[in-house]
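note to self: the first set is below, dont mix up w the second
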Amino acid sequence: MIKNIAVIRGDGIGPEIVAQTLRVLDRTAELYGHTFNYTDVDMGGCALDKYGDPLPESELKKCIASDSVLLGAVGGNKWNSVPADKRPEKGLLRLRAGMEVYSNNRPAKIWRQLADASPLKREIVDKGIDFIIVRELTGGIYFGEHRTENGNATDILRYSEKEIERIGRIGFETARKRRKRLCSVEKSNVLDSSRLWKKIMHSLAEEYPDVELSDMLVDNCAMQIVKEPSQFDVIVTENMFGDILSDEASMITGSIGMIPSSSLGAGTRGLYEPIHGSAPDIAGTDTANPVGTILSAAMMLRYSFDMKKEADSIERAVSEYLDCGYRTADIMSSGMKPVGCCQCGELITGFLR
């Protein structure tokens, strides 16, 4: 099978973690008889330096023409002083809108080898942490009107029934493939947008009688994620709430460097990236953890390319790597074997079979 992948190496540690991920993908293609063609795309701070634009239209078109997009990370302190509409992160928002991806799916799963790295008590961790946050990606307050005038600032949070329904279906369909429990998270005791959200979710529930739907206010959900994470299977929520909750969920698993994510729309083409940032303070030091990006590539194979066996192989290789005691600096603990970014990629590639 031939697949065309747009590759955004990005800023900071992005080029380093992407390089190791491509090494893993190349070996996977070799083992299973596939061909992965890569097209480099400039986005973020590097594109701003090169073109004066964080995502030129020509670069966006490369992504739209691809079968899927692999992204490292964008941004950094270097570009903090540029105008808001030119910030590297604006390129990412435009990429999501241009690709028409509206569902960001972030698994929060603790690897058994990293149970001691979780900040939670062991008795909580031992109950199990394995859930997915389905975050609406192109609506809400991030995409509403922003205005500052006369000493007042306003940000508009707006959702339509259509936007809520389509992300709700992703939530129900995801739960149907897992343990059939969906928790809808909102703030319906305060916000009109959340009351509409709750109404639409309960309307959809009639079409999914095999999925158990529950409601939870976002502040309570933030507490429950650290108190009893085992209660969750799939969480579906709006953009800003999902942004915050998914970062919280990633930390209870032991390291933000281990967590992949996918952004999907109506078709099979997706945007795949680790959830961590560009970490410019460690860029070029060969200390970054590429596992989150490698696992994002595995998600790409599974969800966009229908390559389940190939994805399983990558995830097994990561598990064997952890079994052997190898650790990058972010998840290092006593008695483990320290490795850098390049060696991590080399080892995981070696475990592929």
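second set (the one i keep forgetting abt)
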Amino acid sequence: MPCPIAELDTGGELHEVLVNDSTGDERLGDLVSGTNRQWCQRFWSTDHLETGDRVEIGQTRDIAWDNLVARVGSGVAIAVDYGHTIDSRPAPGTLTGFRQGRRYCQFPMDPVT
């Protein structure tokens, strides 16, 4: 599921993190705004964040889930969320990559050995 990532800059503003497809290098892009900003204000407050901390913006996930649930005529829809509380949320985020069924890396890139 696509998940925009934002990072808190030195001025306390959230910027979208942009990744170069060729090199994997990251840079800060535009300020997070609009519905993504509203989502952050509701679900991932920056009040406790420090410069460099990251936010995983769940707006696209929420929209996709709502769309899926709206299509269920009977039965149930199940989602698995590895979840955490606000107090235990890791500052660099929780996105993790898997390869061949095993944890490969934590984002930002931190290869597992």
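remember for set 2: The mean pLDDT is 83.
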